[in-house]
């Protein structure tokens, strides 16, 4: 395994659990020295290159000073985690990564390659660069953490997109069944994990958990049973959305603290905190409201679901 952007060695120790020999490369000699320190001195630097350390401990790790875009291995699986920040700001365009994503794909074309990217990366743009492998989106405790590109030789057959929910040990792919219904809300509304939504696998998630969609273009799901371990919102009342109607309903339910979830209703989505302030709630209960669009075109209408969260 060859980590071509090893930096201070964060990935290298973990990689030794998968393979006997690991090579880390970086252009910055200071970072290579830090990597050696972080690995307990098991990889010995020698001038501009590296030698394998002693056979004990993490002895299968070597470090080399090398440009990520200048291959120094032939058959190893290549891992790259390009820099996505510069000047204190995030880089959203993969052409601005260090090294640039298009150059990585070009240089290692035909090789087994894994590239870590930002989760918000434009999947269509990746495909336009000629990438034909699998795109995996990973989350941890309801927070989307990163996306990962797996070249065709490392991807599962027939899979182009994958969602991995680490804290639940759950994975979904675009090869999974997706024959869920579109129906009015049942007892529960579920907001799928962000990795599922980002990977475009909402229908697969719904099918697996016995749920259905409220609208074919909106990620909110519903069901009469709440899947084990999943946070849901029990519907107390459904009403056509307007601020006046919503405030009346929330006051009637004794709401004082409100969680707002919104998709497909632009004015609310742009400023949910502003809506919360304008509602001026004074009750004692903590409730949630799910505001969404149902239908499309001239038939589209905003709906609000006043809910009791499961936790």
From TrEMBL:
Which top-level group of life is the source organism from? Bacteria
In this chain the THUMP-like domain maps to: 231-309
- Cited Pfam families: Thump_like (PF18096)
UniProt xrefs under SUPFAM superfamilies: S-adenosyl-L-methionine-dependent methyltransferases
- InterPro entries named among the record's database cross-references: SAM-dependent_MTases_sf, Thump-like
Q: Could you tell me what this protein is called?
A: THUMP-like domain-containing protein
């Amino acid at each position: 395994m060859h980590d071509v952007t090893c930096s201070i060695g964060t990935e290298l120790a973990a990689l030794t659990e998968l393979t006997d020999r690991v090579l880390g490369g970086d252009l910055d000699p200071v970072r290579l020295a830090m990597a050696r320190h972080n690995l307990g001195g098991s990889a010995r630097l020698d001038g501009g290159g590296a030698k394998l350390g002693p056979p004990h401990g993490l002895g299968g790790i070597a470090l080399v000073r090398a440009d990520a875009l200048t291959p120094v291995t032939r058959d190893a699986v290549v891992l790259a985690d390009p820099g996505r920040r510069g000047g204190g700001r995030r880089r959203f365009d993969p052409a601005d990564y260090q090294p640039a994503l298009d150059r990585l794909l070009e240089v290692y074309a035909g090789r087994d390659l894994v590239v870590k990217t930002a989760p918000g990366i434009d999947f269509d743009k990746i495909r336009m660069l000629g990438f034909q492998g699998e795109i995996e989106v990973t989350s941890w405790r309801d927070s989307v953490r990163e996306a990962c590109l797996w070249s065709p030789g490392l991807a599962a057959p027939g899979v182009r997109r994958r969602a991995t929910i680490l804290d639940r040990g759950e994975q979904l792919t675009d090869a999974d069944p997706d024959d869920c219904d579109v129906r009015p809300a049942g007892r529960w509304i579920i907001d799928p994990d962000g990795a599922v939504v980002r990977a475009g696998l909402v229908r697969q998630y719904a099918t697996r958990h016995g749920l259905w969609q409220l609208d074919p273009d909106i990620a909110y799901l519903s069901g009469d049973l709440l899947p084990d371990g999943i946070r849901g919102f029990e519907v107390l009342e459904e009403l056509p959305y307007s601020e006046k109607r919503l405030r009346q309903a929330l006051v009637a339910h004794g709401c004082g603290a409100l969680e707002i979830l919104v998709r497909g209703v632009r004015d609310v989505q742009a400023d949910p905190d502003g809506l919360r302030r304008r509602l001026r709630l004074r009750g004692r209960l903590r409730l949630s409201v799910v505001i969404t669009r149902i239908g499309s075109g001239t038939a589209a209408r905003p709906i609000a679901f006043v809910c009791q969260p499961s936790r």
